[in-house]
Design brief:
This protein has six helices and ten strands; from the N terminus they run E-H-E-H-E-E-H-E-H-H-E-E-H-E-E-E. It is an alpha+beta fold. The protein has one domain: Muramoyl-pentapeptide Carboxypeptidase, domain 2 (2-Layer Sandwich), CATH 3.30.1380.10. Strands 3, 5, 6, 7, 8 and 9 form a six-stranded mixed β-sheet that branches. Strands 1-10 form a two-stranded parallel sheet. It starts with 13 loop residues before the first strand and ends in a 6-residue tail after the last strand.
Amino acid sequence: MLAVVGGAQAQPVQVSPARTVEQAGLVDIARLVPGIALDIRYAGSNNFTARPVPGYDAPKCLLLAPAATALAAVEAELRAEGYRLRVFDCYRPAQSVQAFVRWAHDPAEQSRKALQYPDLDKPALLGGYIAETSGHSRAATVDLTLLDCRTGPCSALDMGTDFDFFGPRAHTDAADISALQRGNRQRLVQAMARHGFANYPLEWWHYTLSPEPDPHTAYDVPVR
C-alpha cells in the first residue's frame, strides 16, 4: 500500500520544468464551475500537519483541462439531483508532498493524532500512508465528498470518517461502517465513475481520471 495520502504511484514520472500555472496548463475549477464548494485543507491549518502546507499559496483546485472538464460534468449532474461536491484537494505540488514527508519525520508534532491517526504511531505513516511521490502531482486526481442540498442549506453527507483519516475505516468498502455511510460512499463512487474517475479503494474521498491525461509528468508549480 503506497501513499494513502497521495494515492498509489504506479510508474516513474518526470517533474515538469513549468514554473507557472499557465506553463503547466492547469485550469482553476472555479472558472468552469462558479460557486463550487471548496475546502482546500492544505491551504490552511485544518489538516493532519496542523499548518498551511508549503506550495499552497491559495485555496484553489487546479487540474489539467481534461480532469477539470470531467469534474465540472460530475458537479452539473449532481446539482440536477440536488447534490453538490465539496473539494478538499486537487493538484498537489511536488514540494508539498515533500513537506508531508518532513512532517512525518518530526516526532514532536502530533497535534492531530487523536483526530486523524488515533490507532497508529507516527512512524508507521511513512511508506504505508505518506510516500515521496503522489498521483495528485500529475494534476488529474481529486479528493472530495458529497453535499446534500435537496431540502435546505447544503450539508455534508456522513461518510464515516473525515478526509485524511489514516486507518481501515477510510477504506471505501470498510467493514465497520453503517449502511447509510456505505450508501453515501457508493453514491459518490457512482457519480464520479460516470465521468471517468476511478476511486482509490483505500480512501473513500480519492479519485483519479482514467486514463490520466499525462501519467508520466508531475508538476511543482505552487497553487496560487
